[in-house]
Amino acid sequence: MNLRSKIVILAASFVLAEAGWRGVQALFHPDPSSFAPPPAQGDADMAQTVKKSREEWKKTLPADTFRVMIACGTEPPWSGKYNDFWEAGDYHCAACGALLFNSQTKYEHGTGWPSFFETAAPNALLYLEDRSAGMVRTEVRCAACDGHLGHVFDDGPPPTGRHYCINSAALEFRKSPAEAGAKKTETAIFAAGCFWGVEEKFGQLPGVLETEAGYTGGRTVNPTYEQVCSGVTGHAEAVRVVFDPARISYTDLVRAFFSFHDPTQKNRQGPDVGTQYRSAIFTRSEEQRKQAVAVKAEVEASGRFRRDVVTEISPAEAFTRAEEYHQKYNLKNKRSCIF
Question: If you count Cβ atoms within 10 Å of the first and of the last residue's Cβ in the chain, which end, N or C, has fewer?
Fold first, then answer.
């Protein structure tokens, strides 16, 4: 091979290597502009409208809000007042009052901070590269006052796929007068084996606002975990699901329930054996019962399972909230149950 050929091959190798490196960089170091929407007509030069010095902010803001928004701090996970908060309304900047998010786009991500999949307005936030904490992330700030809010990631639910992870101390909730008296949520109860995994799976569905692990369908009043595990109380490990019917229907929740576990196993799921692990739907109304029966028939007719579906459908009874360490267990401990 002559010298000229070697030079050509070497140059081509360098170009390919550089392209590959840029690809890796793009994968692990996302460009903040990939999250930011294009400027709206007339908003291309969105300017900061509230300007104060650090000293001025310190005099006017609560200590926790100052630490997060001005000093760029972070709340401990699960500690913020809006993490497990589901009232209808809007979320404004705690520093300047600008509208940032609304309750319709809030969801349970499981990280321990309030999570949203969309902003209230296209240019509500500023997107900046953040190389602190030994990683590269996309920081989000209030476009009106430049206060730090949190970060945005690409592991959110449809339709945006975004996960705005925001500190509660950076938010101020204001109830929407138009929605204050309207019924916006419904409740469903399901049992499909270990409630750790069932709660995690329901919590990931868009439209599910809140989940709670507990016990139902048994005889003992306010049973403990040890009593339920003994199998003598008749309770099932269950999950109570609060959902927005405008975003996900009860029928779709039941369909998801059948996809989460094996409904042909009567009193077990995977390695967990006992009546407390039975497959069951506890309906709260006649309409829920009709929809549950219809979906069960749909699943049986689909041929998805070789054995009969043994899921019981019965009226909801008293629901006892499980001990606190069971709540969001998988999310807190970063593990998954086996189904």
Answer: N
